Every structure is written in structure tokens, then in C-alpha cells.
Amino acid sequence: MSRILLTYLAREIYGASLTVLVVFLGLFAFFDFVNELDNIGKGSYQIYHALAYVVMLIPSRTYELLPVAVLIGSLYALTTLARHSEITVMRASGLSTRMLLVMLCLAGILPVALIYVFGEYIAPTTESAARQWRLTSTDSAISQQLRSGLWVKDGTRVVNVRTLQPDRSMERIRVFTFDEANVLRSIADAARGVYVQADEKGKGYWHLTGVTRTDFFDDHTALASPDEVIWESALTPEVLSVLMVLPERMSVTALLAYIGHLRENQQNANLYEIALWKKLTLPFTALVMMILALPFALTHERSGGASAKVFLGVMLGVAFYLLNGMFSSLGMINSWPPLTAAITPSLLFLAAAAVMLYVVERR
Q: Which residue has the higher pLDDT, 302 or 195?
């Protein structure tokens, strides 16, 4: 009987959640397309470029919206069952609240797995492809939106890239080299830099052209124009590719690699560490949302309407994402442990669900 009920509950929740997800995806796709209308006419960017860009953003939107879709879908499915007295019959047949909670958690395994797959494998790839597609179509460069370009620390060097092209080649590069005492020893300017793929030993390097270098000695300076320079660096195109994807939409592997790069260069990695923990904990948010829907379904037997519960679900979803963003910002400002900043909103919602379940059971 438990297996039959689990299958029935899962089917109802999955169907409602899928409907909500499709509606949300259509709504966000429309907004994304409207936002792209301003770019039409830039370079070779046309309407079909904008449509392709919006389509490539759908996996990222799916990753973001799945927890909210599961919350609203669970609320709608469970309140509909309660309105038809099906939950009343289940509980009268001996199904306890604890067992119902266990069934919801088992039904939540699929959404958790989907969020993980989209967040780790699909969304980062399509997000990067979408941004590169738009940059290429509009003849834009990545770092042109920054007044001073891109700044990266690489060991004893500080690198300023004024323009990073969609193919990840660099233009107008300035490299500041310091010694172990943090004394500036040289400034090199290069017109262009192209990364040469790794050799059989697994190493790669940047080929800089149009180079002029000023060397600073204790008692004089010297100007050199080698024209070409081979620059071996841990700063690979893969590291630069983090500019193509927001931290929250990067894969766990990419986040770990970039966090390692920042730590090696003694830079603050809090933003990416918070994004990493949010990435690891977000799949389980679907379970929290399903648990949060249960108390509302149980109280539906006494009062309330399905439309009101769905509206409440939308408000709770909005509140969750506002809290998620707020705690990420507070974590950065106050230097909280990244795990604390990432997991606190989910713990607050889980605590609220536990309190509401306790109140419902006491009645």
C-alpha cells in the first residue's frame, strides 16, 4: 500500500511541478527576449540570435526555478488531494504524518537529482555558450564593460587585460612584475596574447606579441622591445572562462579550480566559496520546499482555498530567493563562514516547516 501511495503522491507532485516549471520558463524566456531587443542591430546580432540566446539560457533558468516549482507544485498537488478528502482517507487508513513526510522525501529524490545534473553538467555549459554566442554576434569584448579592464594576480605578477575576446584571446595586456619584497621590477605591455595549447607534458603558455618592457633596477631603468614573449602562467583560458559564467552557475569542478587559483595567489575567495556551498546545498532545497508544503496541505482540511495556497507558495518562493541573495551579501560583508551564508535560508525554511508541522499535530 505504501508503494502505491508513494507512486500516486509522486505522480501528482511531479505533474503539478512540471506545469509550474513550464509556465515559469515561458515567462522568464519572454522577459529575457524583451531584454535582448536592445541588442538587436549591434554588430550582426539579429532576432534569431536573440531567440537562440534565450533558448540557451533555459537550462540555467530551469536550475534556478526548480526549487520554487517544486514548492508550488507540491502545495497545489497536496491541497488538491486535501480538498478531495484523499489525504483525510489516507490518514484515516493509518498513514501517519511521519510516514507522509517520509514519502515526500522519497518523492523528492528525483527533483534533487535533476537540480544537481542541471547545475553541474548542463547549465554551466549552456550559460557559457550563450554568453559567448551573444558576445560574438554583437562583436563585443568581455572586459570592455569595465573601465580599467580585467585584473588578475598570478604569483608575483599582476596582470591587467583591457580586452578579453570571446575566443579568450587577450588584447592590450599590461603585466606588473614584483619581487619577493613586493617591489615593482618591471612593467610589460603587449598588444595581443594567445594561449598555446598544452604540450605532451601537460603545460601551456601565452604567446604575447607587440611587447615593450620597462625594467626597474636599483639605480636605473631600462627599456626593452622583445616584440614576442613566451609567458608560462597558471592563468589559463579555463581560469579566464569564469568571466563567462556567474559564480552561482559555475560547476563545482570549475569553482574548486578557481578557488584554488585565488588561494594560491593569496586573494579573497569568499564570493566563490559561498557560491560553491550554495551549489552543493541547493539540490536539497527541493526537499525543504516539499516538507514546507505539507503543513499547508494538512490545514487545508479545515480551511482555505487552493488558489490562496498557490499564491502563498509563490510568495514563499520569492522570500526564499530574497533571503538567499541577502545572506550571500551579508556573508561577504561580514566575512561569515561560506557554509553559514549558503545554508542559513534553507535551515530557516526547514525550521519554519518543523514548527508548523508541530502546531498542526498538536491540534
A: 195
